[in-house]
Specification:
single chain; 125 residues; alpha+beta; five-stranded mixed beta sheet
């Protein structure tokens, strides 16, 4: 009886290990924003299966920003990004794409994937 319980426990442990190995690793969190000598703030944004991370960015009126998008998903929805009325930019997996913007005096600037399913916003305070 004891041997049978031990065999069942070992089998369950092995099955549990296999499921963990099949699960993909979580994407790394976005890096911390940096500020260049000219005052331009660079904001890393991960594009993953859940959308943009971060999806909401705050800015000061007239602040110069570089939004640095890095695609971390194979999903077709994350293959492109568009900021405001700008052109659609292609996002290769793992390759950062920088889009420079200047925050308006008030309001917000929207960004979205090429299909408009994933969205984000730069909000001016």
């Amino acid at each position: 009886m004891r041997c049978e319980l031990l065999a069942i426990a070992v089998a369950l442990a092995l099955v549990g290990c296999e499921k963990k190995a099949d699960k993909p690793a979580a994407p790394p969190p976005p890096a911390a924003p940096t500020v260049a000598a000219d005052g331009t703030r660079s904001i890393p944004i991960n594009v993953n299966d859940e959308g943009f991370d971060p999806a909401k960015i705050t800015a000061k009126p007239g602040e110069k920003l570089e939004l640095v998008f890095t695609r971390r998903t194979k999903s077709a929805c994350g293959a492109q990004v568009k900021v405001a009325d700008g052109p659609v930019k292609e996002l290769a997996i793992g390759e950062p794409v920088t889009i420079a913007i200047t925050a308006p005096p008030s309001g917000q600037i929207a960004f979205a994937c090429g299909m408009d399913m994933m969205t984000g916003v730069v909000v001016v305070n």
